[in-house]
Amino acid sequence: MVLAIAGVFFIACCIILISVSDRHPGTTAGIGSVPISVIAPFQDMVTASIEFIRDIWRHYFYLVSVAKENVALKKLLNQALEKNHQLVEIELSNQRLRKFLNFQKTRTIQTVPAEVVGRDPSPWFKTVIIDKGEADGIQKGCPVVVPEGITGQVISASAHYAKVLLIIDQNSAVDALVQRSRARGIIRGMASESCSFYYVLRKDDIRVGDEVISSGIDGVYPKGLRIGYVSGVIRRNSGMFQEVDVTPHVDFEKLEEVLVITTRYQNDFQMP
């Protein structure tokens, strides 16, 4: 601090001497030349310092401007990404809705489209909540499907919501048959995302890859709706029935929209 004050005082004195010598040109050259020779290096240093500080100041403002521009560009980029995600989501939704529309066009049954708005958090129950209810013509017992196949059955309904028991729930049961060999049995859910085909006679011809469809006998699901395909067969040397595993066509983890069948059906309903 003391050195700074002394420096400022010294420079001020030199400036005064220069001023005096400029006002009295007749003064001896020695008197005028001393302060100039002394102060010139300081002036050069001060000028260089001022230019240095000025450059720093300019760069500071430039960096501040660039930083603001980066923030603005990042904001625009995030908005563009968000818009892109929305467009992708809309396109995916349109693809699903087109499948639903095509499914409805090929059927003579009345359906109500609904969106899945909730899932049972319990690992023991496989149910979902949809955003349509009795006000939309949905009642307990209505079958629920998607273009890929059977989803489940409405087990309770309020005015604007309904609960659907999925076919992968252990309490679910669908009377079904193998499309190729017409072998019959009951589809029940398992602890995993698959099903078991119960009460299939040991003598029946069932192979891995066989298509399993609804039989229409249970009075809930129209005949001919796809359920899944045979993914495992165990035919033991003893016993009346085979052990058959069925993998559903519906991906229940990605279930977002469904169709609820609200009309009576005939047992001769067939998939194309």
Overall description:
The chain has 272 residues and is α+β, with helices and mostly antiparallel strands. The chain folds into two domains: 1-105; 111-261, Beta Barrel (Thrombin, subunit H). Helix content is 36%, strand content 26%. It has helices at residues 2-23, 29-105, and strands at 111-119, 127-130, 143-146, 149-157, 162-166, 173-178, 184-189, 195-198, 211-214, 226-234, 243-248, 257-261. Strands 1-2-5-4-3-12 form a six-stranded antiparallel beta barrel. Strand 6 (173-178) and strand 7 (184-189) form a beta hairpin. Helix 1 (2-23) packs across helix 2 (29-105). Residues 27-32 and 266-272 have low confidence and may be disordered.
Task: Please write out the topology.
Layout: H1 2-23, H2 29-105, E1 111-119, E2 127-130, E3 143-146, E4 149-157, E5 162-166, E6 173-178, E7 184-189, E8 195-198, E9 211-214, E10 226-234, E11 243-248, E12 257-261
Antiparallel strand pairs: 1-2, 1-12, 2-5, 3-4, 3-12, 4-5, 6-7, 6-9, 7-8, 8-11, 9-10, 10-11
Helix pairs in contact: 1-2
What string gives the helices and strands in order? HHEEEEEEEEEEEE
Give the overall form: elongated
CATH class of the largest domain: Mainly Beta
Largest sheet: 6 strands, antiparallel, barrel
So how many helices? 2
Gyration radius from CA atoms, angstroms:
42 Å
SS-based class:
alpha+beta
What's the overall average pLDDT, rounded?
78
Outline the low-pLDDT stretches. 27-32, 266-272
Instruction: Count the beta strands.
Output: 12
Strand order across the largest sheet: 1-2-5-4-3-12
Count up the domains.
Answer: 2
